[in-house]
Write a structure and sequence with these properties.
It is a single chain. This protein has 575 residues and is an alpha/beta fold. Among the domains are: 162 residues, 2-Layer Sandwich (Alpha-Beta Plaits), CATH 3.30.70.1230; 132 residues, ABC-type transport auxiliary lipoprotein component (Rossmann fold, 3-Layer(aba) Sandwich), CATH 3.40.50.10610; 96 residues, no CATH class. Helix content is 51%, strand content 16%. Helix 14 runs parallel beside helix 16 and helix 16 packs antiparallel against helix 17. The protein has 23 helices and 14 strands.
Length: 575
């Protein structure tokens, strides 16, 4: 005869190890050993002492019932305090409610809510339901903070949630004091809300949470962004907040949100970027992938999102700076406005005063120094003697690197600047450093295309150009010159010509390369027309031969320099 299922009112504690799957991937033996030690040396003894009963251990968590709410909460706090010395971070949730015990497992709303509370807790933290809080608030010497009502899956009514620990009230979503709203950072600021698991399977929460956490980590590598930390982001898990409220509560400009849906061996991940103040959607993308290797898919999607979002933020920030009154510009506004102008016309000399003004306002503005260095280095293409260009560029580049040596963008622009000055060793050194710091930075990708091309590795340059184009499909013409040169040096003349045809406002110096591309492609009439156009655009006193010779010196490999000479000779130039 089968045993009849038992139903009873108990306190339930649900717990798991935060980010367990990724920890196992990084160090299987160490993570499993740490979990076993925590289970045997902390969890079991504390549960026994509090008269609890371990219902089950899962792969990375456990479920316990207690005869009283006070025992459950006291046990959870004592375990978390001892587990602080562990290499693992546990999240815990405590609820009180009816459960049904079938002899091998327990079921019911009481268990479901405990599991949802655990998911809302920070690593190392505890969340309890309102019913639990009401029973222990005057019986346990502990601080709880009201997190408001949360809608949780498979529960019809919202659940009041309280969090254990000392937390400043202005950091709790939904409880921001209108008189103490965080000040918006000068830099573009962003929060990544927890991606919603649309799979209908609670076991897949780890995947959607992993996507969110990795995007936060990748965006945090961009020194140009102010990124809200993971703990504040995950306070919104299980909610559907208005982005305007999120913006006010956290003091940020932008919100990334999305969803993950897994079905069989396929996954669909959606992501969108929203301006917090207005609620306007700035960017959205959908990624459909096969799950042959789940971690490769996760990494690929995270990298694409992390590389796309900063570019969109820069466009929005530049647009705001461009519209602002000139007399009220801050150093950061001057920097953004200068970059907005520069990437639309690299030869616009009106850009230099903006960067100089940024440095005058803020002598620590490393990015303004490096942009000035790049402009001075590039000036040899406008007839400035190379030695003079180098004397101006090098001290500025060194100042930027001194101020911000760990900024991948600064490193990448320095690499491009040194390459313009034919310093191949320094160019290689700094581009490798930039890539190691943040390969998802669009500036790093663009500089990698240019530097690798002139170092003689066109295939690797082409690979980076494909990556850059995928991550920044609406980029300005500022990067087109790198691609144009790369296709020429890779002997892909038709592709080079196509790049030029799509160029809205190419520098006149590019007409000479276009003419060489036509000549190499067996189109002498088109080559002559492009060369004649180049001659008409030349400013007075410009020395084409001297500029070409500097250009040839940029090539680290003699065969690449000879390739350029061959193209120029076909135009009748003796270089």
């Amino acid at each position: 005869m089968l045993n009849k299922a038992q139903r009873r009112l108990v306190a339930i504690l649900a717990a798991d190890v935060a980010d367990y799957t990724r920890l196992v991937e990084l160090d299987t033996d160490g993570t499993v050993a740490a979990w076993k030690a925590a289970r045997d040396n902390v969890v079991k003894p504390h549960v026994d002492k509090a008269s609890g009963r371990i219902i089950k251990f899962t792969g990375d968590g456990f479920l316990v019932e207690f005869p009283s709410v006070q025992d459950a909460v006291g046990c959870a706090i004592s375990m978390q305090e001892e587990l602080r010395s562990s290499s693992l971070n546990f999240r815990m949730g405590v609820n009180v409610g009816d459960i049904t015990d079938d002899g091998s497992d327990v079921h019911g709303e009481g268990v479901n809510i405990a599991a949802r509370l655990e998911a809302l807790a920070e690593p190392g933290g505890i969340c309890v339901s309102g019913d639990v809080y009401n029973q222990v608030r005057n019986r346990i010497d502990a601080t709880f903070t009201d997190m408001g009502e949360h809608t949780v899956k498979h529960v019809s009514s919202p659940v009041r949630v309280y969090r254990w620990g000392e937390v400043a009230s202005d950091t709790i979503p939904g409880e921001t004091n209108p008189d103490d709203v965080p000040t918006l950072p000068v830099k573009p600021s962003i929060v990544v809300l927890p991606f919603t698991n649309m799979s209908g399977d609670p076991e897949q929460e780890y995947f959607s949470d992993g996507i969110t956490e990795d995007i936060i980590t990748e965006l945090s590598r961009f020194r140009s962004l102010f990124v809200i930390a993971r703990n504040s982001s995950f306070h919104y898990k299980g909610q559907s907040p208005r982005v305007q409220n999120v913006g006010r509560e956290l003091g940020i400009h932008y919100v990334v949100e999305g969803s993950v849906r897994r079905a069989g061996n396929r996954v669909r991940i959606t992501a969108q970027l929203v301006e917090a103040e207005s609620g306007n959607h700035l960017w959205a993308e959908r990624y459909d992938r096969d799950l042959e290797n789940i971690f490769e898919v996760q990494d690929e999607v995270v990298q694409e999102i992390a590389a796309s979002v900063p570019g969109q933020l820069n466009v929005a920030a530049m647009d705001r700076a461009r519209r602002g009154p000139a007399e009220s510009l801050s150093a950061y506004d001057c920097l953004l406005r200068g970059e907005w102008l520069m990437f639309r016309n690299f030869t616009d000399r009106n850009v230099i005063p903006l960067f100089e003004r940024a440095v005058e306002i803020d002598p620590q503005c490393a990015r303004a120094y490096i942009q000035l260095a790049r402009l001075h280095a590039y000036s040899f293409t406008q007839g400035v003697p190379v030695a003079e260009a180098a004397r101006s560029a090098f001290p500025l580049a060194e100042k930027a690197l001194e101020l911000s040596p760990s900024d991948p963008s600064i490193q990448s622009i320095a690499a491009a600047t040194y390459m313009m000055m034919c310093e191949h060793h320094l160019a290689r050194q700094h581009i490798e450093r930039a890539i190691s710091l943040n390969p998802n930075d669009g500036e790093v990708m663009a500089s990698a295309v240019y530097v690798l091309n002139y170092l003689g590795d066109q295939e690797e340059g082409l690979r980076w150009d494909r990556i850059r184009a995928r991550h920044d499909p609406v980029s300005s013409d500022g990067y087109r010159e790198n691609t144009f040169d790369l296709y020429y040096m890779a002997r892909r003349y038709e592709d080079a010509i196509a790049v030029f045809r799509g160029w809205r406002n190419p520098p006149y110096s590019m007409l000479l390369i276009l003419a060489a591309a036509y000549a190499q492609n067996g189109q002498p009439e088109e080559a002559k027309a492009a060369y004649d156009h180049y001659l008409r655009e030349l400013p007075d006193g410009y020395d084409t031969t001297a500029t070409i010779r500097v250009h040839l010196r940029q090539c680290a490999k003699p065969e690449d320099a000879e390739h350029w000479r061959e193209g120029y000779r076909k135009l009748g130039l003796d270089v």
